[in-house]
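Chapter summary example: a protein plus 2-acetamido-2-deoxy-beta-D-glucopyranose.
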Amino acid sequence: MIFKPFLIALGLLSAAQAIKPFTWNKQTFLLHGKPFQIIGGQMDPQRIPHELWTDRLAKARAMGLNTIFSYVYWDQLVPEEGAWETSGNNDIARYFKIAQKQGLNIVLRSGPYICGEHEWGGFPAWLSEVPGMVVRTSNKAYLEAAKFYIDHLGAELKDLMITNGGPILMAQVENEYGSYGDDHVYISSLRDMMREAYGIPLYTNDGGEESMLMGGQIAGALAETDGSPQTGFAARNEYVTDPSSLGPQLDGEYYVTWLDQWASNYTHETDVGNTAAIKQVTSDLEWILKNDSSFSIYMFHGGTNWGFQNGADWGGRAGAHNHEL
Ligand SMILES: *[C@@H]1O[C@H](CO)[C@@H](O)[C@H](O)[C@H]1NC(C)=O
Ligand SMILES: *[C@@H]1O[C@H](CO)[C@@H](O)[C@H](O)[C@H]1NC(C)=O
């Protein structure tokens, strides 16, 4: 261990501290001070047997991705109130360490609500039995439960944050919250909680429409969109004016295909053999790259919903594609 005052005297610390490990300017992300385009793909550790993590991450790197976007499932980490379960597929710190070894960065999507086509958007079932609970609002019982989860996750991943030499670049606050509500007291409480627990830059990710961006965007977090990059980027440029939410454009979920649904009337969703769909994907991704912007392919690898961890549609029977809970 070298004594800090000694380094400061040599001028070493002040020089190192001048360059933030990850930040952005108006146009571009900056990784260790250099322009950085996020070539990302989504892959959630808790949907993949941990024995296969190295193999899947190596394949992502081999495909040319430089960043993995990962949802984290609260219900698996906190299966009972007050519990903290990080063995096997829940050892997400290990997954992020393997990613770093493979040369991949991480974007952390820890909700607490994630949607993610996961049961109740990642909320633990026991939340529904807590008296006075109102999820996704500035409700006391809910915020206390969320804080337990976020604080424990922050402690678990502390050494893996970019600020401590780890691969985790930034974290998302909530998930497409503007599609659900506009309680900005709630979103800013989460932002503050995450800022304290994670200590890394934060962003929000909403659908590329005015009401969604206005509902989900919050000062001090970079506002990003998902879906069509052309309409999403244009909407962000048009509707978000707070300079503390402006910066490079990231399509946080570029859909290469759609999800499968359990019902006899559905067919398997795939682009295989669909030349028109593949052409659309390649031209969109080329457009983003030429635009000096960033993307995350949703999904790079989907994995498996174990047990009853799959999400379900709400707002009508089968066929309502718009509300996956
Ligand atoms: C499936 O299709 C049949 C025939 O069109 C229809 O009667 C039935 O309601 C559909 N089932 C669902 C779950 O949508
Ligand atoms: C990226 O696209 C946006 C929206 O169409 C446009 O305003 C901007 O000038 C483009 N930037 C570059 C570098 O091409």
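Key point: Confidence is low (pLDDT under 50) at residues 319-325.
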